[in-house]
TrEMBL record:
SUPFAM superfamilies named in the record: Ribosomal protein S5 domain 2-like
Statement: the UniProt record of this protein carries the keyword Ribosomal protein: yes
Presence of the UniProt keyword Ribosomal protein in the record: yes
Gene: rpsI
Pfam families recorded: Ribosomal_S9
PANTHER family xref list: RIBOSOMAL PROTEIN S9, SMALL RIBOSOMAL SUBUNIT PROTEIN US9M
Family the UniProt entry places it in: Belongs to the universal ribosomal protein uS9 family.
Domain of life: Bacteria
Lineage of origin: Bacteria, Pseudomonadati, Myxococcota, Myxococcia, Myxococcales
Species this protein is from: Melittangium boletus DSM 14713
Entry protein name: Small ribosomal subunit protein uS9
Entries under InterPro entries matching the protein: Ribosomal_Su5_D2-typ_SF, Ribosomal_uS9, Ribosomal_uS9_bac/plastid, Ribosomal_uS9_CS, Ribsml_uS5_D2-typ_fold_subgr
Keywords assigned: Ribonucleoprotein, Ribosomal protein
């Protein structure tokens, strides 16, 4: 885990195929994702809600500026990766934030990913149709 940099406090988050690099610093609550505003980047309200969960638990909404660089995966995976990275960055910012974030499960990396396709089958679990005759 990295600590404070010239950009602020840093945390890396991952989910599915997405990786998010998150920097936070005290501010007015501005969230920038890949150089764009959160409302422009995420259309769905659920994605915005997932991203803001760590701030809601700590009651820090509107007090911290967030700058994110995220790549890979889809929008849902990216939102989860940002949440994970934000929680880690908040722990670097203030170690007292760790227990409530840990209790809420935001510091645990969600290891669920797409199962690979196997040979001799059309998908990961699906089999070709069986014909007895």
């Amino acid at each position: 885990m990295a600590t404070a940099t010239d950009k602020g406090f840093y945390g890396t988050g991952r989910r599915k195929e997405a990786t998010a690099r998150v920097w936070i610093r005290p501010g007015t609550g501005v969230v920038t994702i890949n150089g764009r505003d959160i409302n422009v980047y995420f259309g769905r309200e659920t994605s915005k809600m997932v991203l803001n969960q760590p701030l809601d638990v700590l009651e820090q909404k509107g007090k911290i500026d967030i700058e994110v660089n995220v790549r890979g995966g889809g929008l849902s995976g990216q939102a989860g990766a940002i949440r994970h990275g934000l929680a880690r960055a908040l722990c670097n910012y203030n170690p007292d934030f760790r227990p409530p974030l840990k209790k809420a499960g935001f510091l645990t990396r969600d290891a669920r990913a797409v199962e690979r396709k196997k040979y001799g089958q059309p998908g990961a679990r699906r089999r070709f149709q069986f014909s007895k005759r």
